[in-house]
Amino acid sequence: SVMEIYKSHLRVLNRTKTADSLQVSRQYIHKMLREQAANPSLKTFSSFMRLLGEEVLRGCQAVT
Description:
- This protein is an all-alpha fold.
- Helices cover 78% and strands 0% of the residues.
């Protein structure tokens, strides 16, 4: 499921930097990880997908 992928990425990313990038609090990130039924707002989820895309591009550039 998409939400499981979302949560697994939140677990491995630096939570402070992620919270700043998503413009949410660190506590919000912890809440998303803790609660099974918690779903992010569409704005937060789209910000996360943008952030994830930027991280992937940075990783690809570092390899080349």
